[in-house]
Amino acid sequence: MEQLLNSVPSWTNVAIFFGLGAALLLMVLAFVTYGILAERKVMGFMQGRYGPNQVGGRWGLLQTVADVLKLLLKEDTIPKAADRPLFILAPILAFAPAFMVLAVLPFTDAFQFADIGVGLLYYIAVSGLTTIGVVTGGWASNNKYALIGGMRAAAQMISYEIPLVMSVLGVVLLTGSLNLNDIVEAQKNVWYIFTQPVAFIVFLIAAVSELNRTPFDLPEAESELVAGFHVEYSGFRWAFFMLAEYVYLFAMAALTTILFLGGWHPVMFLGFIPGPVWFALKFSVVVFVLIWFRATFPRLRADQLMELGWKVLFPVALANIFVTALVKELFF
What we know:
Pfam families: NADHdh (PF00146). By secondary structure, this protein is an all-alpha fold. The protein has helices spanning 2-6, 10-46, 63-73, 84-100, 119-127, 130-140, 144-175, 180-185, 192-195, 197-210, 235-260, 275-296, 302-331.
């Protein structure tokens, strides 16, 4: 991609970037639309009930399209006592970082928007900004239940951000780089899921919590009478919070594929299959596992959530860093 951009005038580069950005946005929106449908179908199968099968055309393919239209047409209300500017801004603050992190993810060896030397650090830093949008939405609603939901979300995200970051430090130690392309290339022979299995487990659990998905979906609290930080939102503003969750699902599944599953590298003797196909297959497996978690596990209590993060994942991730550094020092 860099060679292509260097060979054309600067104004053409801008047009290419806008075109690629629009294409990526459409790809992500298509994933969100039919990822939700796939989640309904898979969960319906696992829980012994029907997913969307009576409406939405063949196989329910238009069901989520109808949901989007419903949200677009739904009345948009803003509480009188709400902080209006912040109330309007909060969904954008929650969604924008989810799309920004996609810029550094290498989907193949030739398709990446920005190959920066600290791509992993950029992902971690930008993804944390979503917490600001969640807390802002709870605060601006001028509703004590929304505020408590926003504070609960902030506590959860901060608590699990630490073991999430610490789990990838073992990968960084083995690779010697924060560049995501370097991390993929270092797995050309052996994927890090085999050399860093403990880090992979900690990362996956912390990632589920960062995504606010079952069994860690306490900030939304959908089984309660109020819906947490977005209780006062309706219509497409509410949809922006949900859109951010599923865009992060896309991004986190891609990051898991890059960090632990070798990215686009094939399995041994199956090298004749193109790299993008391998990436898509691994990515799909990760998404399926995340849906599987949601269909299987019950929600944790708030105290159990914090105990798991601070008393289990944190020390395990710390021990993994120590062991990885020791093994590398002694044998490499």
